[in-house]
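To: structure desk
From: M.T.
Subject: fold request, one chain
Message: Could you run this one when you get a chance? Sequence is below, nothing fancy, just the single chain.
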Amino acid sequence: MGSYILRRLLHAIPILFGVMVITFILFYGIQSPRVMAKRILGDKAKEEAVQNWLHQRGYDKPVFINLKGGNPFDSQFFRHVGALATFNLGTSDATGEPVIERFKQGALPSLSVTLPAFFMGIVIAVCAALYFVHVRDTAADLAGTIGSVVLMSLPIMVWVICGHALFAVWLRYVPAFGFSLAPGDAVRFLALPVCLLVFAGLGSDVRLYRAIFLEESRGEYVRTARAKGLSNQAVLLRHVLKNGMISIITLTVAALPALIMGTLVIEDFFGIPGLGSLALDAIRSSDFSVIRATTYVGSVLYLIGLILTDICYALVDPRIKLR
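Reply: Done. Structure tokens follow.
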């Protein structure tokens, strides 16, 4: 397994390099550093202030290769690649704060929302899918299928707007805006965002897990287990659920980047100062350093998630060998 993980890590290097190149090219394709400086400093900023801003951030250097003498690699591109390769996320172009500090500040609020929603969503979706497989071809199964399709058809913004209007504005069960992890306040501030995040993804998860479990329930091993006298509940829990875990692991581990990086809509709408809100603010203010760091960290987390997925395969199913 060690050699397999090492090879996967080596394969990740060209992928991450591609991410660095694409983010750099997109940055210059959308707007130049001078335009960004004018946008941050204001249209009335003096030329001296603009030049100083560009110099402090290294945006006055050659773009790809330094042909003006000295080190040819002393350019914006190689500084960009070198910083990300060493996980030096730099400082914010808009505020001058270290990006890593802003990430640390936003990690806990994001995880406070996404972690409970992640685990609650998995448990509820798996239990509901197993129940619909247990009562398949009945009125309850039909109602569950219709309900799942309805939930899938509603975008997350519908849940956010309706849930906020009903529970925060009209009924006033929870605060309408803000965030606090103080004792007694955490549940009040997090209950509605977590529940909305769970329901937003519940329909698609239940439908998918139900399809996975139905496919597994048609296997030869299920017929053998039933022939031995096992009840339907025992077959579902001991055999169908276990064999369906491979597909579920693929879906859940692949959600690792979104789990850590937070959710843009929920955090921005409820004023949660998480990583999703940080990324959205960076887009609004053309803060390339934060956008670059967010994209790179998300890519690293996604690659780690893929490796963890393969490892979990081998742990769940002994027949799978990592070579």
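Reply (cont.): The longest helix spans residues 99-134. Let me know if you need anything else for the meeting.
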